[in-house]
Amino acid sequence: MLIYKIIKKEVKVFIKTNQFIIRPFKLSDAADLARNINNAKVARYTTSIPYPYKLQYAHDWLAKQIKTYEEKRPENIVWAIEIDREVVGAIGIHKIIYGHKAELGAWIAQKHWNKGIMTQVIKIMTDYAFKSFKLKRIYARIFTPNLGSKAVAEKNGFKLEGIMKKDAKKDGKYYDVYLLSKTK
């Protein structure tokens, strides 16, 4: 059984399990972020992560992200996935329309693939997002070659709605994208 606790301090939320912590990013996470995201296999099926990923990208992205933590009703929230005091991934709820819907996005360092971590992270974050933002729908757009991410979404109750042809463009190549959703 998955047990976690949510601790509210000011406007920040920390979720701690026996395997990982989900928490807001800090500026000091830049080195971990750049090191773990700078992997062609991690970046290849994402729409917004460049490869190679430079440390300056991490500094710039973190500065923008941290500003969203101060917003009362942010459109996007992205939190760090921390294991053994190292940021090894991120989980985000994007395009939030309060009381209606949002998009899920996530990545994790290759060294943590196939350990069930992302399955747990997505369960926690979808539960949190449905409750906190009073959502009726959370959807995920997953590049069709990324069968691992599709399987993780399906383990969390996401249902395939269809395939969007040539919906994503990455490095000059067009990709078909699975559209999966979970509703309440």
Please characterize this protein's 3D structure.
Helices cover 28% and strands 39% of the residues. α1 (30-37) packs across α3. The protein is α+β, with helices and mostly antiparallel strands. Strands 1-2-3-4-5-6-7-9-8 form a nine-stranded mixed sheet, sandwiched between helices. It has helices at residues 30-37, 40-43, 55-68, 117-132, 147-155; strands at 5-9, 12-16, 21-24, 77-83, 86-97, 101-108, 137-143, 159-170, 173-183. The longest helix is centred in the last third of the chain and has 16 residues, at 117-132. It has a single domain (5-136), classed as Gcn5-related N-acetyltransferase (GNAT) (Aminopeptidase). It starts with a strand and ends with a strand.
The number of strands is: 9
Proper CATH architecture: 3-Layer(aba) Sandwich
User: Would you list the SSEs in sequence order as H and E?
Assistant: EEEHHHEEEHEHEE
Spans of at least 5 consecutive residues with low confidence: none
The class by helix and strand makeup works out as alpha+beta
Proportion of residues in helical segments: 25-40%
Rounded to the nearest angstrom, the radius of gyration is 16 Å
Proportion of residues in β-strands: 35-45%
Number of helices: 5
N→C terminal distance = 22 Å
CATH superfamily: Gcn5-related N-acetyltransferase (GNAT)
Instruction: Estimate the global geometry from the Cα principal axes.
Output: globular
| Mean pLDDT level | 93
* Strand ordering within the main sheet: 1-2-3-4-5-6-7-9-8
CATH topology: Aminopeptidase
Classified by CATH, the class is Alpha Beta
